[in-house]
Amino acid sequence: MSLSINTNSSASIAASNLSGNNNMLQKSLQRLSSGTRIVDAADDAGGLAVSMKMGAAIRRTEATNTNLSNAQSFLKTQDGAFATATKVLTRMSELSILSQDVTKTTGDTANYQTEFGALQTQLRDLGAGTFNGVSMFGTGATATTVTVYTNEDSSTSTTVSKAAFTGDVSMASAISAGTSLANTSSSQAATTSINSALTALATMRAQNGAEASKLSFGQEMLVANKNNLEAANSRIIDVDVAAESTQLARYTILQQAGTAMLAQANQSAQSVLKLLQG
Asked: DSSP label at 131?
């Protein structure tokens, strides 16, 4: 190999190798410090694209789960109204029986009627209940439904009922102003109406429970999907700390060796001076 002053090929090659090792060392440090395998898009363009889509799907899954939790809260509040209505109707049926006691005076019956009427008003108020400004019950004699989406791309859904609480025929009869404890025959009719209302209310509550159960299973599926999406995304985007630590040690040694060899290559030009001095 010829000796020259203007060009030191050995030093150029050593400098190039050192530069490459420095770059890989910096990349390794960035991966370990960020915990991310893909520091730049050029590291794995295809993987980055897939990871971005998976990340968005994970966020949508979390949002969908939040929506289902809110729907569950809606149903629980609705069921709370049903539970209270059950107690109210039970008390009304008790009053209707007590008012039929032959030992009760007209004044006693009037007192029962006062409480009976107040409880009818309470049922009407329950029927006007809302959750975050959204009515919990339908209007009129027909129940309505609202749609709840159960997966992150809104391709599957279920429904939540807004029962025709005060509009149900049996319930409407029980809380009608015409249903009273004015006399024995009225009290007997009231008992019949209230029993029918309790049966209708039991059906509404069973529907509520069935829908809450469906949402619970939907949430379980969302949690499973989210866990699997996170695991798949981790395999693409997250750095393997053990493997990358090994690479970091390798690049550190190569950098040190490259620095030493560059120094040696630069020293090789000194032999030219010896020729000139000779």
From this structure: E
Q: Which amino acid is at 202?
A: A
Mean pLDDT of 250-258: 82
**Residue 237 has which token pair?**
């985007």
Q: Are 23 and 251 in contact (CB under 8 A)?
A: no
In angstroms, the CA 21 to CA 266 distance is 18
Cross-strand pairs, 134: 131
Q: How far apart are CA 17 and CA 85, in angstroms?
A: 81
Count of Cβ atoms closer than 10 Å to residue 140 Cβ:
10
Report the DSSP beta bridge partners of residue 160: 146
Place of tokens 């629980």: 76
- 6-10, 75-79, 194-198: least confident range: 6-10
Strand partners, 144: 162
How do the residues of the chain divide into helix, strand and coil, expressed in percent and rounded to 5? 70, 5, 20
Topology at the third CATH level for domain 64-218? f41 fragment of flagellin, N-terminal domain (1.20.1330)
Measured distance CA(167)–CA(128) in Å, rounded: 11
Q: What is the C-alpha separation between 167 and 161, in angstroms, rounded?
A: 14
Is residue 187 within 8 Å of residue 181, measured between CB atoms? yes
* Pairing mode of beta strands 134-135, 130-131: antiparallel
CA-to-CA distance for 33 and 141, rounded, in angstroms? 64
pTM: 0.80
Q: Where are the domains of the chain?
A: 20-35+240-270, 64-218
Q: What is the pLDDT of residues 185-221, one digit of tens each?
A: 999 999 999 999 999 999 999 999 999 999 999 999 9
